[in-house]
Amino acid sequence: MNTIIKSGILFLSIFLFSNFSAQTKTFKAKVEGNCGMCKERIETAVKADKHVKSAHWSMTKKVLTVSYDTSKTDKKAILKSVAEAGHDNEMFRASDKVYDDLDSCCQYDRPDNSKKMGKNTDTKQVCELK
User: Fold this and answer.
1) 3-state SS string for the chain
2) I want to staple 22 with a disulfide (CB 3.0 to 4.6 A). Which of 16, 31, 69, 115 is the partner?
């Protein structure tokens, strides 16, 4: 009987701990870039967030895969940091200044996101795409 009670308490403790521990989520996002320097810059920008568990950008597919703690950060914050590093993605457009400062090999053909940008968008800043 005593063993059953101890087992029940142990099971309940594990169940409660797993529900309150960090929740990890993974997403994939389209991120523009060209070369190995882009890969390093993109992954470094993402990993600067200490709540990111892992980040991998595929140079051939131009897809970023990120695993992160959902209780501490989110996809929007992560992709904004990528745009701040100079790389357009599905949610944000990098500022023209940051993009222009990239090495020539890193300057990708920018997609025309004019329909997704707000009417009063300042291209000197990172802008959110709608």
Assistant:
1) CHHHHHHHHHHHHHHHHHHHCCCEEEEEEEECCCCHHHHHHHHHHHHCCCCEEEEEEECCCCEEEEEEECCCCCHHHHHHHHHHCCCCECCEECCHHHHHCCCHHHCCCCCCCCCCCCCCCCCCCCEECC
2) 69
* 22-69 per-position pLDDT tens digit: 699 999 999 999 999 999 999 999 999 999 999 999 999 999 999 999
Using DSSP bridges, classify how beta strands 63-69 and 24-30 pair: parallel, antiparallel or unpaired: antiparallel
First to last CA, the chain: 61
**CA of residue 73 relative to chain centroid, distance:** 9
